[in-house]
Each structure stands twice: as C-alpha cells, then as structure tokens.
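Q: Give me the 3D complex with pyridoxal-5'-phosphate.
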Amino acid sequence: MYETLLMIPGPTRVSSRVLKAMSKSIVNHRSAVFGEILNDTNEMMSEVFQTENQSYLITGSGTAAMEAALGNVIEKGDKILNIVGGKFGERFMQITETHQGIPVELTVEWGNAANPDDVRYILEEEEDIKAVTMVHNETSTGVANPIEEIGKVLKDFDALYVVDTVSSLGGDDVQVDNFGIDICVTGSQKCLAAPPGMAAITLNNNAWNVVDKTKSKTYYLDLKKYRKSGEKTVPETPYTPSVSLMYAMNEALKMIMEEGLEARIKRHEQAAKATINGVKAMGLELFANEEASSATVTAINIPEGMTDKNLRGTMRNKYRIELAGGQDHLKGNVFRIGHMGNITHREIISTIAALEMSLKEYGYEIELGTGVSAVQETYMPGNNTLEFF
Ligand SMILES: *Cc1c(COP(=O)(O)O)cnc(C)c1O
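A: Here is the predicted complex, encoded as structure tokens.
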C-alpha cells in the first residue's frame, strides 16, 4: 500500500529518523539519563522559540499548552483581551471563560489579519486587561497575524502578551524575546514535524511574576510545578511524561538545528509561495487576504460545481493525498493545503498535479499542467534563494 501523503495542517509527516528514535527503550523518567534528554530537548525548544527563557514540555496536544498559559494567569473576574479571527482564536476565548476570566473580544473577520491599531484602541479604552491572546498563524483561515507589530503595541501596556504559535513555530519567524512575547505555546505535530502528543511553553520573567501571584485553578497544568521539577539538579517533569514522545521531540528538534532555523523558515516561505502561485494559476481563489497569507497553510475556496466530498475524496482515495476541509461555517466551502514540516517542492508539485486531475475529472475547466508549471517557476533559480528545498 502507498503511504498517504499528509498535506494537512497537522499532524504532519514524521521522518523515519524521528519514528526510529521513538522505538528506543523506555527509561526511568526520574533518572540522570532522562534528565539529560529533557534538558537537551528544552534547550533546543528555547532555541526554536528564539528566547533566553526556559521552555517546558507538556505531555498533551497543543491545546494543553494553550490552557496552561491561561490557566496559570487567570483568576475569577480577570479581563482578558481575546483577538479572534478563527477557530483557534475562539479556543483561547473559550479557555478564558473556562477559567472564569472575562473575555473582551476583538473580532477579526475570518480571512483577515488582526490590526495592531485596533489592539491599541481597546487597550486604551478598557482598563485592567491582564493578558492579550493572539494566534500567530490562524490555521482555520490560513492567515498569519502581525505578532511583531502587536508586540510593539503591547510594550506600552502592562497586559501579558500570550501567543499561540502551534502552527507556525519552526515554519515561520517567531522571535519570542524580540517580539516581546511573554508566554508562547506550541505543539509537536505541526511545523516541528514530530508526532502528536507533546506541547511546549515558554514564559519570561513578566509572565512568571504574574503566575506567582495567581492562584491557579489547574492541577496537571500548574506551571509552578513544571518550573520546580525543571530546576532540580537532574531536571524532571512533575508527572510521568511520554518518554517515547520526548525521544521524538529531541530528534525532531535536532533535525531542525541541522537544517538551520533560518533555512527552514525560507523553505516554508517558498512552499507557501509555490502553493499560492499554483492554485492561482489554476484559477482558484484564496480564502484569505493574500497579504496576510500564512507560510504554513493555504485555505482555498472550493470552486463552483465542485463539492468538498468529491474534491478531497478524489485526492485521498485516488491520489493518496490528504487535504484538510474547512472548519465551522467554512465547512464545504473551503479546503486547506498544509505545507508545514517536512515539505519540499516534491510534495507541492505532486499535490498541485493531483489537484488539477481531481478538479478536471469533475468538469472544472483546466489545462493540465497550468498549476504545476507555476509551482516549477516558483522554484526556479532567480525566483528562489534556497540552495536545497
Ligand atoms: C493545531 C492547533 C492548535 C492545537 O491543537 P491540538 O489539536 O490541541 O494540538 C492550537 N492552535 C493552532 C493555531 C493550531 O493550529
């Protein structure tokens, strides 16, 4: 059987090196051997976050880190500014409510990026906002938000800056320290190209000052416990971590170090550009405002006369390429191509080629090769600064 090519925004394809790392024997999670692996993994994690802060790994999916971020900061009645332009922005708001915070919502039309001026306006109007939540890469709409510019706005206010980089870290530029991010979270199964099940979080001193003063209403995700265990001579996690996933994260991060973060980000930019050029050449429309388009996932309107079932079903069953559908009200109207993690020109070319065939089979007017040649052009020397992709 062919392996299905995952062109979805997580989980992404995991390299055989990482899969193999997971097959190593399980060790005592409270031993020097594991302590070293944990330390090494945390350090590489901080490098990818581009921060001097400590990072912590949490056994759980990306949402666990999102909840850890807010659960350690919110006490009943605290006001949180939630910037919501898609499914994951909504999730931060729901977590705010779960922890009995009061959400102040900045609604951004799905498909557009948040406007830093709007953030400033709300922070000036509303008193006592304790934290601002922002999703860097809104995976549901294919939008990359201006986290650097919003970070500049937040420098003038006391509110903590909490950023979800689950679908961007390791694929787009996330400079935790330089962008003024106080708490940053990510997950294993997207651009980091590790299996699902691990999350990571990093907090600076501003954030720890708030966490130390907050009576948190979370037990498993109490970050003070992660800090305490991490500070032991032989670092540990408070509870049993997934040892195998820690091996996987360690290996996946090593591969990122080998590629180089900058080269990796460029590779993602190139893949996004190629995908966008390919689908546009086919006459398809992007869902998101192109200026705000993501480096890691592209959302595309399903053309008239085509159904989601036929489109993605053909891609999956005939060509063995898995694409993602739309979420919530975009279901049936939009499909998404994930180009994150271990994605090169090979995967983009195959995906665009199969997309042409799938659409043509259902009567969409297209000359085969139109999209593919646009992808090829994008990767030609002159249009592309990468030596390897
Ligand atoms: C995938 C994702 C998450 C986390 O989802 P999990 O299923 O919990 O890993 C959070 N935010 C964004 C932007 C995501 O893309």
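A quick observation: The longest strand covers residues 129-135.
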